[in-house]
Amino acid sequence: MARMIDHLSLGAADLDRAARFYDVTLGALGYARLFTHPRAVGYGPPGARDETFAVLATRDATPCEGTHVAFAAPSREAVDAFHAAALAAGARDEGAPGLRPQHGEGYYAAFARDLDGHRIEAVFHARRGDVTACTSAP
Question: Are 118 and 58 in contact (CB under 8 A)?
Answer without folding.
Answer: no
